[in-house]
Write a structure and sequence with these properties.
The complex is a heterodimer of chains A (about 110) and B (about 110). Chain A has strands at about 5, 10-15, 20-25, 30-35, 45-50, 55, 65-70, 75-80, 90-95, 105, 110-114. Chain A has about 110 residues and is an all-beta fold. In chain A, strands 2, 4, 5, 6, 9, 10 and 11 form a 7-stranded mixed beta sheet that branches. In chain A, strands 1-3-8-7 form a 4-stranded antiparallel beta sheet, with no helix packed on it. Chain A is built from no helices and 11 strands. With about 110 residues, chain B is mainly beta. Chain B is about 0% helix and about 55% strand. Chain B contains no helices and 11 strands. In chain B, the strands form 2 sheets. In chain B, strands 2, 4, 5, 9, 10 and 11 form a 6-stranded mixed beta sheet that branches. Classes of the chains: A mainly beta (about 110), B mainly beta (about 110).
Chain lengths: ~110, ~110
């Protein structure tokens, strides 16, 4: 069990650019979640996959955000036309469907939009 | 409108004493509660959970108490150790929330040697 990994760990981009983050969940976990965390706040739910199906999306997930999990393993989160308000830590988590409440988080990708 | 509140941003406790972290929620549809611990530069780590059918759950040095009528839960750490120094998040979910977990803003615990 190597844990949840995220890449890159840090990303600095200019406003208006597109960015893509990758998450590799724990191998036997079929559920994968994306969260966003800003300074002084707890993680905010963005979206969730069961296998390759995206089953739930938060209203926080604007049209500029898209997430995929094409083969039910790793996932990508893309932000198009980034804005300064997108600066945050983006966290990925995974869980087994039989123990859904226990989510294992990755270290996160810190995005800074200048 | 914060549905999960942790009104103490920080807490300092002497090593060996009890740490009590508090969490309040406003949504009566929540029926499952979790505590996560977060060290710097790491993602949150699951610590302990409690279902609304219970009022207490214990795991080693960690005990979570749930008071449904008050919509309040607390995490007790006894005895506190310096390695417990971290940010603690309370999170809640419910049948009508699917996989949507609502996190509080966190409490930074410092255990002083």
């Amino acid at each position: 069990d190597t844990g949840v990994s995220q890449d890159p760990r840090h990303k600095i981009t200019k406003r208006g650019q597109n960015v893509t983050f990758r998450c590799d969940p724990i191998s036997e976990h079929n559920r994968l979640y994306w969260y966003r965390q800003t300074l002084g706040q707890g993680p905010e739910f963005l979206t969730y996959f069961q296998n390759e199906a995206q089953l739930e999306k938060s209203r926080l997930l604007s049209d500029r955000f898209s997430a995929e999990r094409p083969k039910g393993s790793f996932s990508t989160l893309e932000i198009q036309r980034t804005e300064q308000g997108d600066s945050a830590m983006y966290l990925c988590a995974s869980s087994r469907s039989s123990v859904t409440y226990e989510q294992y988080f990755g270290p996160g990708t810190r995005l800074t939009v200048t | 409108d914060q549905q999960v509140k942790q009104n103490s941003p920080s807490l300092s406790v002497q090593e060996g004493r009890i740490s009590i972290l508090n969490c309040d929620y406003t949504n009566s549809m929540f029926d499952y509660f979790l505590w996560y611990k977060k060290y710097p530069a790491e993602g949150p780590t699951f610590l302990i959970s409690i279902s609304s059918i219970k009022d207490k759950n214990e795991d080693g040095r960690f005990t979570v108490f749930l008071n449904k009528s008050a919509k309040h839960l607390s995490l007790h750490i006894v005895p506190s150790q310096p390695g417990d120094s971290a940010v603690y998040f309370c999170a809640a979910s419910g049948r009508n929330y699917g996989q949507n977990f609502v996190f509080g803003p966190g409490t930074r615990l410092s255990v002083l040697p």
